[in-house]
User: What shape does this take?
Amino acid sequence: MGVDEMWLNSSKIKDTLKDEVFYCNFDEEDSITLRLRSEIVNWLGLKLTTKQELATIKLEIDNKLDKNLEAYRIKGQQIRGTSSKGVLYGFYAYLRRKLIKLPLEETSAPQQALRMINHWDQVDGTIERGYAGESIFFGRFGSNDNTDKGSFEVKDIGTDIFRNDFTRLEMYGRFLASIGINAISLNNVNVRGLGTSLIVSPYIEKVSEIAKIFSSFGIKTFLAVNWAAPKLIGKLSSSDPLEREVRLWWTKVISHIYQVIPDFGGFVVKADSEGEPGPYQYGRNHAEGANMLAEAFQPYQGLVIWRTFVYNSQTDWRNRKSDRAKAAYENFMPLDGKFAENVILQIKFGPIDFGVREPLMPLFGALKKTNQLMEFQITAEYLGHQIDLNYSVPQWLSMIHFSNYGQAKDTVRDNSPVPNNSGFVAISNVGMDENWCGNKLAQANFYGFGRMCWDNNLSAEQILDEWLNLTFTEISAITQKKIFTILISSNRTYELYNAPLSVGSMMVPHYHYGPAINGYEYDRWGAYHFADCNGVGVDRTVATGTGYTSLYESSIAKKFESLEEIADEDLLFFHHVNYRHILHNGKTLIQTIYDQHFEGVSCVKNYIEVWQSIRGEVDEDTYNNVAERLNLQLYNAQNWCDQVNTYFYRMSDISDNQGRQIYK
Amino acid sequence: MGVDEMWLNSSKIKDTLKDEVFYCNFDEEDSITLRLRSEIVNWLGLKLTTKQELATIKLEIDNKLDKNLEAYRIKGQQIRGTSSKGVLYGFYAYLRRKLIKLPLEETSAPQQALRMINHWDQVDGTIERGYAGESIFFGRFGSNDNTDKGSFEVKDIGTDIFRNDFTRLEMYGRFLASIGINAISLNNVNVRGLGTSLIVSPYIEKVSEIAKIFSSFGIKTFLAVNWAAPKLIGKLSSSDPLEREVRLWWTKVISHIYQVIPDFGGFVVKADSEGEPGPYQYGRNHAEGANMLAEAFQPYQGLVIWRTFVYNSQTDWRNRKSDRAKAAYENFMPLDGKFAENVILQIKFGPIDFGVREPLMPLFGALKKTNQLMEFQITAEYLGHQIDLNYSVPQWLSMIHFSNYGQAKDTVRDNSPVPNNSGFVAISNVGMDENWCGNKLAQANFYGFGRMCWDNNLSAEQILDEWLNLTFTEISAITQKKIFTILISSNRTYELYNAPLSVGSMMVPHYHYGPAINGYEYDRWGAYHFADCNGVGVDRTVATGTGYTSLYESSIAKKFESLEEIADEDLLFFHHVNYRHILHNGKTLIQTIYDQHFEGVSCVKNYIEVWQSIRGEVDEDTYNNVAERLNLQLYNAQNWCDQVNTYFYRMSDISDNQGRQIYK
Assistant: This one.
């Protein structure tokens, strides 16, 4: 088996279109139109004529099509776009509709302007929170390790840090464009080792080779930077954003980048977070920090993407009034309106860190004068490491449709002073593994993220159906439905056997896979559950807790604040609750914990049965890949179930009312 | 400051003896007599005459002195030994007595025949469980990292694995001989990477350079071997001890070693333990495994030191009948009498793993037909990493004086068919740090171990007094007493703020420093505390528990079995006890837990005050070194106190009866 083409199965597509003759009606060429021609001729091996009258499929630019430059229209055999980028999107949309036999009639423009992927790839080839082998950008050509680990120091691999696997990069660019991604950052936001030097020669020249490929797919390349770069690689004595020589240094560095990469996207910055350097150490605020870079980018329309994942990672568990959930709000809300036009705040969807159940981060809806990106995590850091199945689109959609002063999917754009500088961003889950994601079925998440960015009104079911149709065209509708049933419930199943009722953070420290109920309970990371012999949960109410509920619009706040009104699944994120408290489901909290964990395990057992029943119907690689991981998932689910249930049984001394096996 | 000479302060000694003239009365020379001459002339720069009549101090061999070849007698200015080795020991004993002004009158022979040090040094320079910098044997010349970490993979550093710091090795050899050590193994018992090849060319030739130095100090060199070496480096298809070609391979390897190192000591073997290979994988028992090597060593009087630290490290926490404490007994007791004469079982003093409070391993006293070594750990893996003060000699003495069919210090020898093949062994705590041990005061443990091996009747107080006198000759008796008071109580203090009442294993996994109450509770290592809302502890009784108590002599077993008779400090190792149970101290278990933890912290605060009061009286390096670590110890003790107390308060809902601060 070669490298998986994901949904873009070239032989299948070629077969479908083998009788067609393409014609490109462009006034002038750019790197995207050349890519389009190459896609037809080189990738698919189809006919491309220069004689309009011989054509059966026409590709055209029509700048009056829509005010959105990325829009496209498919009308029978005609594919038009407002720009070459629109045509490119239309081209892949045409392929998609053709493969799954939808009517060749569609007008479409993306709803989020920025549709971005962040890589946490490191210059030694490892990937922070990567579960699908090494980086496709960095590392040794031909090598691929499984790099799942708890710490992310970068080892010195010399100066030859680029993998140079351009075939792979082209495949990746194609996949990204086919789902509408238009921006990518290549390296980990924790910028270490030679990663700090990617922005200068001789590394930036190598980055430009990668950026050129992405450019031709309509994707702008960004780099994550180390805030202390002026000191670390510029040899200045300071990185203070108000220091003249610091500003000058950045100006020079950025000017040089644009000489090498004329359409460079900009920087992604994680500053003052989890030990990374930042403006606070110079007594400057984050607006001062970001705006300094923005000024240097201004001549080139470059962007500064500034992460709000700023919290005190030296939290004292003894202080129950401190609340990490409030940190981003408290750090950034006072700065609303203070950021330059080409700065965008990148804000995680939830207030903690991509847990399987978190409420929407209250900055969404509240920030009204600041460009915003909502951040998601495709890589399954807290969601089973692409071992356990977890189709996460339902959870993401619940976030973008959540209304705090308006639905988040709209407020992200509507509250951004420059709507084009807003959108969604997600951490990639791909690596050098042959199927890109470790688990074949984890491709659905990457696909789904792109589709969700483009069309905010697609449902999780629609996206999944589409992906299954494209990916498993050869299998029967019944078999497809079986896989559908597994995947559509998988995020909820993972939640069932994980930390109960949104309390979060009971996993093995650093690795974040598998249970360790007290793994972070007495640690400095501010993620606690406060279980005692009477109850469990974090009191974030205004009345008796940290007051976090007050950060939401009053009607939402009221609901979260109230033990009666709050939904069961959000309960322990907001309240410390007695084990005998009766939930909306009519059961006690403790019984609900037990029931959910037993149910979670039984769901996984059922997945295994279903999967076994389709043996021979999906290709053997996929079958074995998923079967093997389902067995690991069962072990994990059982482990979670046993440890969580035993933990709370030992704590509460309350037996399961159905007498099932809970170890003493 | 150069490298610390430990108690062997050459300028102080030289000053004391500057008017003396040494004379060596030996019939023939060997490497030890040459070393003795060199110690006088090169190390101390003192006078050595060849004219007996000019001598003021005479060194002589008198083989009728004692039946023990290592014995010495000091009589005024005459130092005699049964052998050159005896003279060497007498020489350092003379220096010791001279420095601390004891009468120059002593006849002495060691009580343990083998007095051995194990190093867990790795070929990349790291040390498993090392807290004083890198290995003195391996690693790059001139480099020294702090290598405290949780995992011990060996990185590839090329073929040049030896540090070649012979000055350092000579200092170390001198120190070892001065405290009576006569055997050393150089490398980690988890033998990885190039470590497996130390027993063959070209590495064994480099080992011989180290062995030569130690030989001259009366110390035999051993190597730890990987049981699977025939497969790993011999390229055989098996390592089965009953396979002819495997036996032949070992015979060849061992024969070659003796060509290179004629007085080579033998092998140390960790087999079938914690993932290491061993005879079990070929369906052979440990006697078959060990005897195969013993046969190959037999022509050279080489030894096979076989560790009994064999247990199932895939234990299921769900099964409360499984008990790691029983493992060594169950694996080795049935083999008593089955081992060859040149095999020695190396048995940890306690049944788990060097915890601050464990009962004596019941194999001692029970094994009657097998050569034995009792194993201690000088390196403070579970005792504070040489950050927290922990003078461990009191704990070790309580072990050797514990009687299970006789005092362990005697049964080790008395129950060994070849008494010369018995004794004590300990894991070293030294590394490349300037003061060897990270913490200057941790030298007392190494010194104490050697003295305890030599003279089983010394008390912990005597040993400490001796070490303080030798090490801090310049300070006042009052100041010395202050340091004494701190150190003599430090093992108990550590116990006070650690896991309560011998329950053990509540530390951060892998690192083993700092609290993580549930760190191993649901893990596979078989070290649990089983705390629930009613009580805590491991039921190891025959009546209701794992039956471990039955492994002891009946009177001991009866005492451990009885909740009324058992000492408070051993309680939770043997019983699962309700928090409201009244201990011998008149208090409830839960109150005892609280009290001990508050007391532990207050002891450390007191240590800091005492230490501050001697500022200016000890040298500045020592003062700062210890002061800095005491501050870290306070942080650690407070952390243990807060986490343990909160954990049990949350569990039990029982308040401290003195209303002190326990966090909710």
Chain A has 19 helices and 16 strands. The domain at 10-108 of chain A is CATH 3.30.379.10 (Chitobiase; domain 2). The interface with chain B takes residues 317-318, 320, 515-518, 522, 530-534, 642-643, 646, 649-653, 663-664 of chain A (CB under 8 Å). The first strand of chain A starts at residue 21 and ends at 25.
